[in-house]
Amino acid sequence: MKFKNYLAVFLFTIVSAINVWAKDTLQVCSPSGKICVKVWMDKKLSYSVWDNNQLIVAPSFIDMILQDGKTLSLNNSIRSSSVKKISDTITSPVPEKRKIIPDVYNELSIKFKQPFKLQFRAYDDGVAYRIITGFKDSIIIKDEVADFNFPGESSGYFQEIPFNDSTDMFQTSFENVYTFKKLSEFPISSIAYSPILIVPKSNPKIAITESDLEDYPGMFVTGAGTASLKAVFAHYPLQEKINWALYSQSLVAKRADYIARTKGTRTFPWRVLMIAEEDKDLPSNDMVYRLASPSRVADVSWIKPGNITDEWIIDLNLYNVPFKAGRNTASYKYYIDFAKRFGFDRIMMDAGWSDNNDLLKVVPEIDMDTLVAYAKKQGVKIAVWTQALTLNRQLDSALDQFNKWGIDFIMTDFIDRDDQVAVDFHQRVAEACAKHKIMIMFHGTYPPKGFNRTYPNAVTREAVLGSEYNMWSDKPSPDHDLLLPFTRMLAGAMDYEPGMLINMTKENFRNINGYVMSQGTRCHQLAMLAVYDNPMQFFAGNPSQGFTEPAYMELWGSIPTTWDQTIILDAKVGEYIITAREKDGNWYIGGMSNWSERDLPVNFDFLDEGSKYKATICKDGMNAERYASDYIIDSLTVTKKDNMQMHLAPGGGFLIKLEK
After folding, report:
1. What sign for the dihedral angle of Cα 171, 174, 178, 182?
2. Catalytic annotation present for 96
């Protein structure tokens, strides 16, 4: 009986949509004609999306509601429309997936009687829309309506935040595990942040996110009790309070009844729907980057990301050293020696190198001038961690000091918000860093969502549940790791911080402070260098152990962090992935599995015709299913005609380096 009722409602929705489309319906299709968007105004502004003549997004509403009562839909009508075809390329100064990015789409522009415009772009790998306003004076936005309705019963992968009376649910570090549930079962008492992956009963899969987020709050979604999701936004913070602690933060004490106050004439963030016929189409999708505003940094020649060490996760628990390990000059000299030995560009001095609330107050155990001189002599750069609240307060003086020390990369942490004020903080800091020729990574914050195109010096972000969670939980499991390329990574580079050298099976994993281990095999960690997008790739393992495994560390230090091109050879959401990346004619192939043991074929037909390649192969050892740190490094010669079978232990992986 329930099925009959559901079917009747579904058929009524489709028939109603068809009746609407018969009058005043606008349409734009992707360059191949595969994906089409239909848009119409009938009391409410609505759209639907079709893929190969199959309805994949049912009629959904778009609206913007201003505090003065003006809305995109109320007493409004379509005045004119136009379609243009664009075929262009984007050259990325910090190429996460590829250096030359094709930007090919058809765009539908709609003008309304009221001072609103709407743009839809149809790509062959997705669609996006954004609202544009043309008011003379500034405006206050009470809410934005962005509905995502799906035909039939669909499920999705969500990072869910349940409602709690005692907390501001929009105050989050954006570091959650993904849950899989039916859209109709996603509670209206919870919210989830994007990206979100929608899984219908049959493909295509659809990822929901946003791009070009600027001077506006980020988009969350909530359930509606049906196969629908509705956008929700953090309201504007009217009052903030400082929580003074070891890691001090600015918390929202009171929020307004509106989400943003902003310029009256501007573009708003893109609402993005990535459409994937096959699972392997998702990790290589760079729609978010394409949709973002072009770089505002005129000279990008100084932006040079790379690989870097960090001591946070292992808590500087060094051994076999002739000094007392800790946050002191001797320990950081040791890290500089390690970086020099294995080809790392930088070391990170993480939290504790200074007073967290005063970046100009270095702790007595560290002689910064000595470290700076030593690093320069070794050809290694120094990077430092900062607390966001402190950096915001000491921005100019801190950046001046960093310039004097020769620091070209910093991390800032504990933002934990994406309301309009928090979003503006990112832009202000990135602009200031660019003037000082300093790269920055934001931690404890939302995904990049195209910000890294607009400010290429903002080379990466956290916004992911990564290696540090091994310190206190079992959440960063291989099952979790195999969801990230199809979800979080779609919104831009992510700082997972792999490199754990103590590796455990599911049964043997424990949380031990100072002796932090990871779940899955050693090669599972290594494969992340090729699978995960991150131009500033961290090594979070213990250098004392790394020194005892020179062949492994030399391989690690030789892996690039930016790429000329990326190909996903094979993938299945949450189960496995094989990624091939090319840099300067050499190829790097990373493969990862969830907790299932499996054999994966690797075909080399993407290699250059007639060329021979030296293959360095690091793969799970014969006993990796019991001793997860077991690995083998082999070398052989391969050509375009070759292929090989790779055996992955439970939670396993491999990395292949191909040099011409």
Report:
1. positive
2. no
